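testing teh design pipeline on a random one, pls ignore if ur not involved
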């Protein structure tokens, strides 16, 4: 595919218009970094390929071998693309059983931790769960995939604003997001 200079100029104008919008006031970056972040976000491909699904299945096998026995939790985690919750730089390692950094000096929890906590909760459909510290939102979505009504509160404004724009959020209307100090 060949890009014409006019198309690139038009795309850059669109990005600059976006930069001048309300998003910039809640951005994690300023100046040139903000332009790069927004361009990278707009260009990011949220693809859930066969490779990702295979890596997820391998992760589920690891969680099972570590003692996670609730098949509902394993199935929920097997359907949720964890790499969507991480910076694209972590895409190749997103399905390792490790915690990774996200914005605001926070981390996305290790998958075993998410599965173990969820198994201890013994969540049933329509149970109400209060989560203090939304973080990446991964734990909340795992709980919602099990049918829980999740109330999650985040004190980091940048993370809260990021969730407002996260496309996967609309798939789980049973999650209610709040900004504040829980």
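output:
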């Amino acid at each position: 595919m060949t890009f014409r200079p006019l198309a690139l100029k038009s795309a850059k104008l669109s990005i600059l218009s976006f930069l001048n919008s309300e998003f910039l006031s809640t951005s994690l970056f300023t100046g040139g970094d903000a332009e790069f972040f927004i361009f990278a976000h707009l260009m990011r491909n949220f693809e859930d390929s066969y490779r990702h699904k295979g890596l997820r299945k391998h992760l589920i096998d690891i969680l099972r071998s570590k003692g996670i026995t609730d098949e509902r939790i394993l199935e929920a985690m097997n359907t949720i693309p964890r790499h969507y919750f991480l910076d694209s730089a972590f895409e190749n390692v997103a399905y390792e059983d490790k915690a990774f950094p996200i914005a605001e000096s926070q981390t996305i929890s290790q998958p075993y931790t998410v599965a173990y906590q969820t198994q201890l909760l013994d969540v049933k459909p329509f149970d109400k769960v209060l989560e203090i510290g939304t973080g990446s939102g991964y734990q909340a979505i795992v709980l919602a995939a099990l049918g829980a009504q999740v109330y999650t509160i985040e004190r980091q404004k940048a993370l809260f604003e990021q969730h407002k724009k996260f496309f996967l959020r609309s798939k789980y209307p049973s999650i209610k997001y709040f900004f504040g100090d829980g």
